[in-house]
């Protein structure tokens, strides 16, 4: 009898497990159906994806409060412990109804989000709040976390307090079905994404994060039509690269016969020699050049040290801070990501793609490089910094500059160095883009020969 009872209990347990699995499958299919089917508004999707129960408000918005001296003392203690202080902020709770009738940007990530990335997105979001009628969108952070620990609770709260947009009250507001949907249907793996959904709950873009990095709020409402229109207007010129990251750029662009030279590298001695040579040679042609150091990707400490040296010695201009340096390079990667989708079948012949890859290739090397262009025009040339200096130092350069323009003269002479560059080993890392083409032919920026193709798996965390 006991054996029979145990067998029945085991079968009952299996039945319950089967029922639970069936419920989960039905709930997942229902969420997919809601996401794909036309809706009258976005509320049904929001209520299904984000905590479907009505017993609590699942959204939070946090804003700073004015501090008194006692609050500042508390802040100091909190900073030492790396914890946010609840007394310093205003916390408001909301139902998902607050998002009705708006474009919603689902900012999807785990808990490994850098301060630089949050700072960049925060700046764009803050700018949109100055004209909310024109940019009717809201960001909602959806943190995808499978198991919370004491450490991850603190990490979540610290991140939450750095966001000025809507966040979930807690990662548990996303149930297992919603997390499965985000991973399997929306394709989230590790790197943060922003999925844009319009006021009637229809997805308009899974690349909204990249679009915001490239064009800021001008990418609104994040539709394919909007992206196509923006790309059709773009050409490879200094304005596209620098206007959004360099406060002085528009002032320089208004000055006649002024060129901008942005350069990178991590050897301060080379930077001193390079900038001194440009300052010496450019005036001989009647040309004014503004020098701007843009650092290099994934070298925050080294770049920060170089920026401080450049500023203290007044060697050149720099981007405002390390966050802006990160923004410059991340934005280039976003250009490459979205432009390949836009060009698709014409990737090999796309000038913007080829030039973006060239700059990213320069950024991956240790030695110095530079790009010189005239604002408002497509006159732009780039190469090894020493090749550019050698070109403008030629005795006949001034005469050629008068006939062909400053950039045209550099282009003429730099080719002789690129063809005889000796041993070198360059690389261009091309991000994997689902559904987008990868160039079948990439030209080396040093020798102008076709580069060999390899497959690279990379992990840059920790």
Automatic annotation (TrEMBL):
GO terms for biological process: phloem development. Residues 226-461 form the Sieve element occlusion C-terminal domain. Signal peptide: none annotated. Transmembrane segments: none annotated. This is Sieve element occlusion C-terminal domain-containing protein. It comes from Saponaria officinalis.
């Amino acid at each position: 009898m006991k054996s029979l009872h145990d067998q029945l209990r085991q079968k009952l347990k299996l039945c319950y497990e089967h029922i639970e699995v069936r419920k989960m499958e039905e709930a997942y299919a229902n969420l997919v159906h809601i996401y794909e089917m036309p809706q009258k508004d976005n509320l049904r999707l929001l209520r299904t994806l984000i905590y479907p129960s009505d017993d609590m408000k699942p959204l939070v918005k946090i804003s700073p409060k004015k501090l008194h001296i006692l609050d500042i003392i508390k802040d100091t203690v909190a900073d030492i412990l790396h914890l946010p202080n609840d007394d310093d902020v205003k916390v408001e709770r909301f139902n998902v109804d607050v998002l009705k009738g708006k474009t919603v940007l689902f900012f999807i990530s785990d808990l490994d989000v850098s301060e630089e990335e949050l700072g960049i997105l925060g700046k764009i979001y803050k700018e949109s709040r100055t004209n909310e009628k024109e940019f009717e969108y809201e960001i909602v952070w959806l943190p995808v976390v499978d198991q919370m620990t004491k450490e991850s609770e603190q990490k979540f709260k610290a991140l939450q307090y750095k966001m000025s947009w809507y966040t979930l009250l807690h990662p548990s507001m996303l149930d297992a079905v919603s997390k499965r949907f985000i991973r399997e249907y929306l394709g989230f793996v590790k790197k943060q994404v922003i999925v844009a959904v319009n006021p009637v709950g229809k997805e308009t873009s899974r690349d909204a994060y990249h679009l915001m990095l490239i064009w800021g709020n001008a990418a609104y409402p994040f539709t394919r039509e909007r992206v196509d229109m923006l790309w059709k207007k773009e050409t490879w010129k200094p304005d596209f690269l620098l206007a959004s990251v360099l406060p002085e750029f528009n002032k320089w662009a208004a000055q006649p016969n002024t060129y901008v030279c942005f350069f990178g590298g991590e050897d301060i001695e080379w930077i001193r020699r390079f900038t001194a040579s440009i300052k010496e040679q450019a005036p001989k042609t009647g040309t004014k050049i503004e020098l701007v150091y843009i650092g290099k990707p994934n070298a925050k400490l080294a770049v920060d040290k170089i920026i401080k040296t450049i500023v203290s010695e007044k060697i050149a201009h720099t981007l405002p801070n390390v966050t802006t340096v990160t923004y410059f390079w991340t934005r280039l990667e976003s250009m490459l990501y979205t432009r390949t989708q836009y060009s698709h079948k014409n990737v090999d012949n796309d000038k913007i793609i080829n030039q973006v890859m060239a700059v990213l290739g320069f950024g991956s090397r240790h030695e110095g490089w530079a790009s010189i262009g005239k604002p408002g025009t497509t006159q732009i040339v780039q190469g090894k910094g020493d090749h550019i200096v050698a070109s403008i130092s030629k005795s006949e350069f001034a005469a050629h500059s008068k006939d062909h323009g400053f950039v045209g003269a550099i282009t003429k002479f730099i080719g002789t160095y690129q063809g005889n560059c000796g041993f070198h080993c360059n690389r261009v890392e091309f991000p994997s883009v689902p559904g987008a083409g990868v160039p079948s032919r990439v030209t080396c920026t040093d020798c102008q020969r076709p580069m060999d193709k390899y497959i690279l798996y990379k992990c840059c965390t920790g």
